[in-house]
Design goal:
Belongs to the ABC transporter superfamily. The protein has 232 residues and is of the alpha/beta class. The protein has helices at 40-48, 69-74, 92-102, 107-117, 119-122, 134-146, 164-181, 192-196, 216-220, 223-230, and strands spanning 2-10, 15-24, 29-33, 55-60, 63-64, 77-80, 152-156, 184-189, 201-206, 209-215. The chain has a single domain (2-85, 150-230), classed as 3-Layer(aba) Sandwich (Rossmann fold). Bound molecules: adenosine-5'-triphosphate.
Length: 232
Amino acid sequence: MLEVRDITAAYTSAIIIEKVSLDLGAGEIKAVLGRNGVGKSTLMKCIAGVLPARNGTVSLRGEDLPVSAAHRARLGVAYVPQGREIFPRLTTIENIEVAAHACGHDAHDAVESAFEQFPALRERAHVMGGNLSGGQQQILAIARALALRPSVMILDEPTEGIQPSIIMEIQGILRDLNRSEGVTILLAEQNLDFVSGLAQECYLMNKGRMEQQMPMADIQSNPQLVQEMLGV
Ligand SMILES: Nc1ncnc2c1ncn2[C@@H]1O[C@H](COP(=O)(O)OP(=O)(O)OP(=O)(O)O)[C@@H](O)[C@H]1O
């Protein structure tokens, strides 16, 4: 469904990721794992269209995607960035409305459906994004991405800075989205426990390159590889 081919990207002259490829079939959940700084976020940004790649292509259902995050969002690729990037001075409702408007969807419907799915957000409907806890912001970021009615969701380190009980809640939310709504999910993560409960396959990144692809069970049963790739 989503094909990433030979992506090379840089912020300045130094190449950060080189010839990185991955595939995501419809309805799959896959993870990109690697230590801090190996280039996971850079790859996610290139797939979302936030950062133009120097080389390579991203295609959805066989069609090359345009180099624009807004276009990709309208075509069904939703991106939840690292750090969530909730609009701090907009309320919960307004954060969702902005995303729905951007894709030409009915904002009222998007808010209602988000509140049905995530009752905790309804209780904080008029709270400014910046005043929500990290976990609440992460759930809002997922709700905001869903307002785009995506077929693919890309989440960059959704567990970063989130307390353990909420991490489990986020895991449940993503599992439900995948099972009940068929949303295809790509995660960049360092939290192996979180990913193990969700993904079937993982890609291991190191120094800007995709080194290996394997079933999640294989990395879980290989502590030496976990130590080498994730440092835990
Ligand atoms: N905006 C930027 N400008 C210049 N260099 C950047 C920028 N963003 C990231 N980098 C550099 O690119 C490299 C890869 O960073 P990236 O954020 O993609 O890694 P990561 O695997 O996601 O790590 P982390 O888990 O810390 O986010 C790092 O050396 C980082 O310093």
